[in-house]
Amino acid sequence: MYTRRSALALGLAVPGLAGLAACGPNASGGSSSGGEEGSADSGSLRLAWWGNPTRNENTENVVAAYGDVAPDVTISLEPGEWSGYWDKLATQTAGGDFPDIVQMDEKYLAEYGQRGALLDLAGAGLDTSEFAEGSVEVGELPEVGLAAINAGLNSFCFLINPEVFDEAGVDIPDDTTWTWDDLIDTAVQISESTPDGTYGMTQMSTVQGLFQVYVRQAGQDQYKDGAAGFDAATATEWFEWGKRIQESGAGPDASTSVEDASQSMDQSLFATGKVAMTVAWSNQVVAHDGLVPEGVTVLRPPSMTGSASDAQLWYKASMYWAVSANSANPEAAVAFVDFLVNSPEAGKILSVERGVPGNLSVREAIVPDLDEANTKAVDFLNAIESELGPAPEITPQGGGEFESILTRAGEDMLFGNVTPEEAGQRLLDELGAALS
Amino acid sequence: MSAVGELSQILSRGRNRGPREKHPDNRAGLVFMAPWLLGLLGITILPMLASLYLSFTDYSMLAAPEWVGLENFQRMWGDTRLHNSLIVTFTYVLVGTPLQLIAALLLAVLLNQGMKGLSFYRSVFYLPSLLGGSVAISILWRQMFGANGLVNQFLGALGFTGMPGWVSNPDTALWTIILLHVWTFGSPMIIFLAGLRQIPQMYYEAASVDGASKVSQFFRITIPLLTPIIFFNLVLQVINAFQTFTQAFVVSGGTGGPSDSTMFYTLYLYQKGFGQFDMGYASAMAWLLLVIVAIFTAINFFVSKFWVHYDD
């Protein structure tokens, strides 16, 4: 007859006995391997990232190249798409199945890092001595240390399809002096001098990156001290500006905009030549450049004052590499990350598809050989270097929701269900709730 | 009565009137049932109990769950997006299910006329319900009802040009998903067909001798004798409809948009749990859904006393 206590004791005793047996004098190699049962597969790692076909290919190539550097390490690949990536990662986390190395985004860095899922890379001995100033700090969290290392820098930019400008007979504006009003005026001209169904610009009021540019120019920021860093008045102005895009005819109607936002990149209005201007992060210049016959032109976002020196742009870590705090092989994982960010060989394979490398010697090694499209992105980053504003705060926990909150409030406003003022207030309220 | 009819009768009465054996020997029965029983315990009961526990906790999946008592349930009162998702889901269930059953019944009656190639038509009409919940059909739906989709091209050919995208407009997006639901009438239709076969021909013969029209035969013979089957289908389809997820997820690209117009309850639950690391709240939502479905089913059974006729 088992009592609950005796059953419990038995449960504890059995693994204990097994452990004793493993350490016994007859256990083969027990002392030399230090009792590590997992030593047999110490060279197997899992690597997860989101991306596109180009990125998938060069990531596979870089892993293959690492096979020559560390032949005893096998890396299994888990590519994904942005939309499903975070759901999958969250599920894997819940199941204790977090990959060893993950591509991380700024939006979710605090989410995972402050809950203890990520390893302190500085503590694990990752060399960051060759990184550009300020490019390492963007991966630091107060309670963790270096939770993730920058995989590339980018910034927010405007993309122009010169063909549509030609068709409309409109000159491409000077991006060092243009204002938010100039942008709409230019777009209206284009919409009016092209056939129906072609527009000057996409609906940009639901784009988080541009929202951040806007509030920074208003002397605020997206986050301040872990809370919303902007006020209702600025958010209202933002939505009023978005409403003008629609009502002036500069951009498409609400329903077309919603549909455009859900299209894949190659089916979008911009890629199909139905719109002259859109916005993107600069590491996406390459992908867009391939979709537009004449190639894209990269411009600075407009400023409120008509001077690029007030544009308040910033270098963002386009993405990061992070290592799981629970990895069975942290040394091997960190060694691979070291290869990814510090080796010129890896840099040449990865190019600037994940953004321009923060490691300056890697950057020097690859920039001379870049093709035209990649050069556009690098040139843009170089051009704005002297105009940068202060670095923004890292997205606090819960801030991963911001984009969908902005989209909902913006769409409701565009469909006329709420006023810009109500949308602005809702943005603040819902963000506040998400961050708490 | 058909097997289905008996089942619905058992469902509605729920009482076993058979005499109880004094000393039942259950062992053999239990052994035979073991595979199913283990599945029920391991895959259904245990996870349900776990989710019941989690619904009283703050659980981010990354850290251990923390007991918060009823806080998750209290938060639901103030969660306007949750209220909106309930409205969306109720609209879908209350409009979509009756329409789906009417379509199923009408087609079943049509197919019951003894036409040539019946099994072919039956298969064709059944096909959508095999496909309806699938990702592929949902993607197809999104394309068809898009701004440049097949539906608008057809309308354009009829002279209605410049129509907006149906799935990207908050006024119409939900209705396209309801239409998709109605289109998947196959499984209730098959059950209706089986039920129609059970109605003795002599009733119709007698009625036509007395000069009753086809329409009044339908309303006075077919419908009353079919009520147990209608009831059975209604209960099943209502429960199914409350749990709709795939269509909403795929048609809206996982967002429930535009502006939350297709934010189904299950989709919101999923976003809370897996998108926002709020698994405690998501578990609480799952239990609220269970309670809602249970209440609806109870109401269904209660009301059935007044309109379902059994031939005894």
Automatic annotation (TrEMBL), chain A:
This is Extracellular solute-binding protein. Keywords: Signal. Residues 26-45 are annotated as: Disordered. InterPro entries: Bact_solute-bd_prot1, SBP. Residues 1-27 form the signal peptide.
From TrEMBL, chain B:
One of its GO terms (biological process) is transmembrane transport. GO terms for cellular component: plasma membrane. Residues 86-300 form the ABC transmembrane type-1 domain. The keyword Magnesium does not apply. SUPFAM superfamilies: MalF N-terminal region-like, MetI-like. Its main location: membrane. Signal peptide: none annotated. Pfam families: BPD_transp_1. It is a multi-pass membrane protein. It is found in: Cell membrane. It comes from the Bacteria. The keyword Transport applies. Keywords: Cell membrane, Membrane, Transmembrane, Transmembrane helix, Transport. The chain crosses the membrane at residues 30-56, 86-111, 123-141, 173-196, 217-239, 284-303. Belongs to the binding-protein-dependent transport system permease family. This is Sugar ABC transporter permease. It comes from Brachybacterium saurashtrense.
